[in-house]
Amino acid sequence: MCGTHNFQLDYMCATHITQTAIQKAEIVMSGTSPTLLTPEHQDFYERFKSFWAAPSGPRVAEIIAADAKIHFTGQGTMSGTDYINYMTGMLDAFPGMTVKPIDCAGCGEMLYIAWETSSVIHGKPRKFLGVDRFRIIDGLAVEEHIIFDSAVLQLEGRPGIDH
User: For the chain, how many helices (H) and strands (E)?
Assistant: First the structure.
């Protein structure tokens, strides 16, 4: 996907999550509390938070199906099985990396989770936001799109944002 399409997808995800946050605020203010997530989405979100509380390559299998298609910004596509090794390498390359889930929204089989990552990249502390778009079937992600501004991973970072 080209940068324009990544931006459009990021914008659509951000808009969806923003709209959901507004709906949640309206619900709190009105005193009503309908369930906004399906039980399957809520369960997955809790397991996603648990994963990032103690991440490891082997734990990927707790939330991602072996035959899932993982679309990682700047890294192409891989299977759920390959993602286990990729996650191990990523955690080794970025010691101390944290991912803080911020919010989520669901629609049908799709679940969107907004997050903030903190890590030392090329010797400099950096923070960046992103969204994961999951297709959930039987409690596991069978498709995931990890969406963020991959310029943060470059040596020079994102001039004007990181500096």
Answer: 3, 6
